[in-house]
Protein: Phenylalanine--tRNA ligase alpha subunit
Amino acid sequence: MLSDLEQQLADLKQAAVEAIAACEDLQKLEELRIAYLGKKGQLPKVLGGMGKLDPSDRPRIGAVANEVKSAISTALDDTKSALQHAQIQAKLEAETLDVTMPGVYRPQGRTHPLNSTFDRAIDIFVGLGYTVAAGPEMETDYYNFEALNTPPDHPARDMQDTFYLPDGNLLRTHTSSVQIRYMEKNDPPIRIVAPGRCYRRDTVDATHAAVFHQMELLAVDEGLTFTDLKGTVKEFLTQMFGEVDIRFRASYFPFTEPSAEVDVQWNGKWLEVLGCGMVDPNVLKAVGYDPEVYTGFAAGFGIERFAMVLHQIDDIRRFYSSDLRFLRQF
Ligand code: DAH
Structure:
């Protein structure tokens, strides 16, 4: 016959082992441990009755109590390690990193050949002490023509027909307009380059586009001469192209006197890449400079043509067609 106490211990053991096996949470498992084995837990409570036992029964009951305690401890340990294992497993699954998976493809962009040509030209001029200036693509007749010594009836306007806006403004035909805008706001000495987009009503062919890019060069100071212009242009072209054949040709622009054009060898022929000259005294007067004190030289380069010579490109239209087979080569 089991004593009362033995029955209580057996019941406690069964209840405890079942509750522990059913536990699914480490926090609750710790609560169960305290509830059964803790100082004020159920096992110590049952054992509190040991004092009333007949001394001859004590060793037997004590042994049962130990067995119950170790059964509960084992159940706690087993469940604890099972729960911990499950927790790690869940974490591993949630945070899986498969290093053999293909990466996320991000297409790598490149600098468009026109922009890299701009960058290269700007680098050279910055090295020569120039700074970069900018002006609007939509211009007034004054900045694009008149202040550049090109009044409304001037025949040179024929070569620079452009897109006129209803309000009388126009899309600039060259970056030379930036010369005027910059000189109006600054005093000599001036050394600037002005990169930008230009527009002309031109018939498009292998070397002409209706929208194209130029870089303007302007230096104004006391005592500047044609020699300074020639030296600067030569230095620039040499840094740009290395040992390429170039030639200066006498030319005409309303805003320079004297004027010249410079050609570079391309596809076995001469390709005009820039116009230049000594700033016309009328242009200096238009911005309030005294032409008796100051002289200046200026030039305008076609960026497309520079890029065509640099990369041996056969047709200007390739720059604008967004053909990746072309663009990926740069
Ligand atoms: N603006 C001229 C053009 O687009 C190029 C040019 C020639 C610019 C002579 C200049 C210059 O600054 O001095 O055809």
